[in-house]
Amino acid sequence: MIEQDLAKKVLAVTVGKGADYADLFVERAVYNLVLSDDRKLRTDLYAEHGVGIRVVIGDKTCYAIGDSFEEAALLRLAAYVRDAAGDAGKQTGVIDLRRQMTRWHYPFAIPAAPAATETKVDIVKRGEEAAWSTPHCSQATIRYRDHQRDIFLASTLNDSILTQTLGLTEFAVMVILDRNGTRESGILARSFYQGLEALTGENSPEAMASKAAKIAATALDARDCPRGEMPVIFARGENGILFHESCGHGMEADLVEKGSVFGGLIGQAVASPLVSLVDDGTLAGYPGSFEFDDEGTPSQRTVLIDRGVLQMYLHSSLTARKAHAALTGSARRESYKYPPIPRMRNTFILAGNSDPEEIIRDTKRGLYAVDAGGGGQVNVITGEFITSVKLGYMIEDGQLTYPVKGASIIGRGMDALRDIDMVGNDLEITHMGGRCGKGQQAPVGVGMPTVRVKSLNVGGTGDAFNGGGA
Amino acid sequence: MNPLEIGQRLVERARKLGADEAEAFVQKAATVQIEVKDRQAETVTYKDRNGYGLRVLLDGRMGFAASNDFDSEASDDLIRRLIANTRHHSPDEHNVLPEADGGIRPEVITPPVDETLMSIPIEKKIEKAISIEIAARQTDPRIQQTAWLLYGDESREYAIVSSRGISGQRRHTELYGLAIAMAAECGPDGHPDQATAQTGMCMEVKTTFAALDPVAIGRKAAGFALRMLGAEDGQTDEMEAVFPSETGSSFVDLVAGMVSAELVQKKKSLFSDRFGEMIASETVTMIDDGRLEKGLASMAVDDEGIPTSTREIIRNGRLVGLLYDSYAAHRGQTRSTGNAIRDSYASRPSIGPTNFYLQKGGISRDRLIASVPKGIYITEVSGLHASVDQVTGDFSIPCKGLLIDHGEIARPVSGIMVSGNIFDFFSNITGVADDLTWEVDENVIGVPTFKIGGVKISGK
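Output (structure tokens, whole complex):
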């Protein structure tokens, strides 16, 4: 997209007044959508390109974006950012972009963005057919999305040029069932750092539509969830969003600086010794994976909690420099429009030793949370989090009994982590469909094995919960 | 070229390249965002947000594409791909591009535009952002830090042009200040004790630089954090609850999102099949007013170029109105209410509220609180949108509040959840105060303090 010599010229301007470091992020991207809504099919197309220039002096970052790749415009933008950042009064360094990095692994067997519209329309039509053939289906939305982002990054931080292609292939189904005037919805959404080959087998349009319909059908039979303090067992897989919200955010170094409850606790026990929490950007095909982060640091597997003890935070170059910590390969940007900030990638609890069925058998009364698909959010300073449980089952005498719906779970991240008393041996990491929002959107993966928390506050619309205990 | 000329060129090219009808939305915008920490600008971001969105109509099919590449070769290429894609769509007789409306309406008095915004030096803006932080910290020694402090502004110019005779452009400025203050009691070592930490958030949106009052923002955020210090876990109970504007607005916003005629027609709204029915108590009247004098969301025409209107949505508890764009209006055989909204140039217009508010009642806020023998004044709710079941209306959301004892505000409680059904919630509103306040998040929502009975609370 940009010649190396031009990148050198631009960076030379940016550090002209002695900036600590600077980078030039160039992107050309295309986004496709095929949507079936109310049995009507349509497409959207979005093409975007631009550059972002960042200059860092001390703790101050200046960032500006432009939409021209012309030399004169780039040099003007570079001077503008340099002047806004101020004068560090230091010697100008020599720009030497000697390292060339590029993707070593291309994860798209059938690249999605350039594929024919017919192919994508056919995928959506298959999902549409499957969803609408569900008994009692009264409405369905089937959404296919893909994007491809071609990226060029030149940075004085590591004297290198990085070129890589990122992209996602996404598929989501929402089915609403109406049985005698009672309506329930079921949603399933998946995203892949892969091409069209991902939408096969258990992730085929038909299989996903059928799973979404099954969630809605079970919800139709579900009772209101009781409310109060109770033991909660989280089913494996997507419920890992719980740890993303309640712990992961508080371990992003920029939020640690803002007063996160996990601040200053490295080396200390913050969770039950059964808990090890990992954030991994190197898992093939998962939505939070990439080869290099958006500052050019290789992606890595970062152990955040090892057997209950907090190990480290997720860093960008800016936070790592302040904290004298190592880079973790987790500085991400939604697009050229944003400077990089520390983000999670694929976040999950490692497998433990318990047989998942044994965890249920061992619970006298409580909630088995199947689908925390409603997402959640966290206040990183107080550690308070919420996650909603779309569907679950009540446990009576170690047995799953009737399905329940409409529950939310709140707690403090660290209390919940310490209250974990059983961890299953059945880790599953999911290709979660949603995005993580933190001022910028980022695709992430989550996962967990079956886990029991001794006691959590469950807010349901049903009666108050009496007694029980694990 | 200005946005209007660009729009005219794009519409012309789209027609030449095969579209039956075409409409362009063209935007040129400049934004600044400043994040402050410890009285220093930590991050300063400048963004141009220029681009266009193009809708084409082809045999009853409505295609959409967007780009920020104004180059004529690039836009021709995009239009060709758009037209090829559109041929795959399902035809829908309700897909229409609206015609220009020749009717004369009274002028809409919109809030002032700040013509100087772009030329105000960045130092002045940084200074304003820092004064928010100083104001928050000076409120009380227990305000140890501001976790988040942002100033942002946008100066925007946009045009809508269509082959059906729509043609116009508008200028617009908007500024915001946001503070999240953190309060904590000091521990025995003199350092703030994290375990007692509470946060308070305040965001103000204005249209001129002078109108944005940094001190008010800082103090309000600080006050919100301070009032929660010493909060203990609440008990499972059922009681009356009072919602001030900072928490009541998310419930009104939820209604604003659900009264989209398109969602109702597609049976995706909680209000599908409820038109004409009582959905709230008689004290509840809600109005969407796109022509409100100096309303933040006031505008003469919507993002399809249709004149905005004033619309009763709920009258004394009864659902009497919905919000329409031209698609839903055609489908419902009625006229658009001028509620087509675009998130940005890169998205299709869809139905959304303008200035949407719960009409004020006749008693003061203080008397409303005094009328509660045992209850809770809700100071914080989180994640309402994520928590409400979009089909059944069931919700349970974490809250914080101040207990009300014999009409007096007493101690703070946290760790509780309020659960129920959104219809029961509005049907149980027993009093609305006269202190209508405007809150801005995604939408512009007006809400007075109100109280509801029989709220289920789960806690310890």
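Chain B touches chain A through 72 residues (CB under 8 Å).
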